[in-house]
Amino acid sequence: MNIPPPPAKILAIDTQLQKALMKALGSNEKIDKTKVWEWVEKVRRFTSFYGHRLRSISNNRFGNQKVDSQLVWMADFMLSSAYLHPDRGALPLDPLLLNGSLFAYSALSKSLNHQDVFTKIALAVQTLKEFHSQRIQQPIMPPMGPSFNPKQANIWGEEASTAPSVVIFCPNPYSLYTLALLQLMHSYGVEIKGIIVRKFTPQRIWAEFQRDSWRIVKKVIRKLILRQDENPEPTLVSNKRILQEIHQTHNNVYKFAEDHQINAFAVARYDQEVVLKWLSQQNADVGCFTGGGMVSPATLAKFNLGVINIHMGHLPYYRGMDVVQWPLLEGRFDNIGATAHFMNEGLDTGPVLQQISIDVRACSSLGALRNIIGGWIPLLHLDTVLGLGSGRISGQKQRKIYRLYYYVHDTLVDIIGDTIIDRPDLRQVNETNTGKLFVETLSIVVSDQAS
Questions:
Q1: Hey, what CATH class is 150-450 in?
Q2: CB contact at 8 A, 166 and 193
C-alpha cells in the first residue's frame, strides 16, 4: 500500500498501515523511506511528549478497547526503528526511540501480559548500557557562535558604560538564578527598568503538574521552601555559591527591588495586557528571561534588541527538555553546556549569541552536573548583555532546526548515573579546576563592585 504522511494529530493506526510501516522499515530494497521516518518521528514525539500521561491521552485518542494494542505496536515500531535510525552515529541504537518505547510500555495495562515487548525493551536497554560502559565518545558537533570565556570578566567594567537597559522576567520571587543575575547586573550599573514576576495561579500549578508530574513537588520544596540549588549534591559551582561570593543578602526579588528602587510586579502571564502596556512605556533594550514559561511574540516585540534566554543545552542540536541528559545518552560528552540565544516564536529556535561547554568529568552525578551548569548561567547571561551593548556579541541564525527532545524515562536516567557520569579518576582535579575558575571570575565582580 502507499504509505500516507502522518496526520497532524496521532489517532488510532489501523492494522494494515501498521504492517505496511513495519514492512517498509525493515525492507532492504532501495525505496524512499522518507514517509516512514516521518511516522517514526511522529510516534516518538507523541509517546515522549505525553510521558507519564500517555495512558490517559491514549484512552481518549484510541478508546479503551484499542489502547493496549496501539501502544504495543508503537513500542515495537520504535524499537525496530531505533536500530536503524540514520542519525545514531556510533551508537548501536537511537536512545530517543528507545525512550519513546519505554514510555509506551509503561503506559500499558498492568493486568495484561506484555512479555514479548518487555523482553525486547530489556535487551535494548542492556545494549545501550553495555555501549556506555565502554565510555565511547562520539565526535563533537561544532559549536555555534562564540564560546564564553570567563576571563572576559576582566572587560565587564569597561563594557558597563554601553550596557543596554533590561527588564527581568522572573519565575518566582525566590529564584536563586534571578537574584544572582539581579545582583550581577546591579554590580555593573546596568539599568534595570523592572522585574516581572510570574504568579503561582491554579492554572499555572495545574499546567506545570501536567508537564512535570510529581517532579514539581521536589522543585517546589527545594526552590521555594528550602531556597536551595536545583539539586542537593554539593558543588563548588552553583547559584547559591554566586550569592555567597558576591554578598547578595536579599532572599527575594521584591526586597531587592524595594531596596534598589526598581519596579517589580506580579502577573499571571507574561503576555497580559498590563504587561504589554507597561513594556510599551519602558522602551527597554533587552529582556532577560530567567524562567516562568513561554514568552509570546507580542511580548518579545516590545524590546529593541530582543529577549535573551539561557538554554541548558547546546543549540541548535539539543532543543527542548532534559537536554543535559540527552547528549550524555548519545555519547556527545563535548556537547554539554548552555546556550545564550534570543527567544522567538519557536521553541529554542532563536538566533544564537554564545555558548559555554562544561567538562562532565568534573561531576560525580547528574544533579551535580546540572548545578554546575546552573551556576555558570547567570555569568553567561551577564556577559551576553554586556557583549551585546559593546558590539562584541551578535546573534547568528540557527543553521538547521534539529530534533526536539522530551523528558528522559527513569530507566535511561539510571544508565546515566551508573555508567556515564562518575569518573573518580578524573573528577577531583577537574572539579577543583572548575571551582577555581568560577571563584576567580566572581572575585573580579567583587573587585569591580568595590571600585
A1: alpha beta
A2: yes
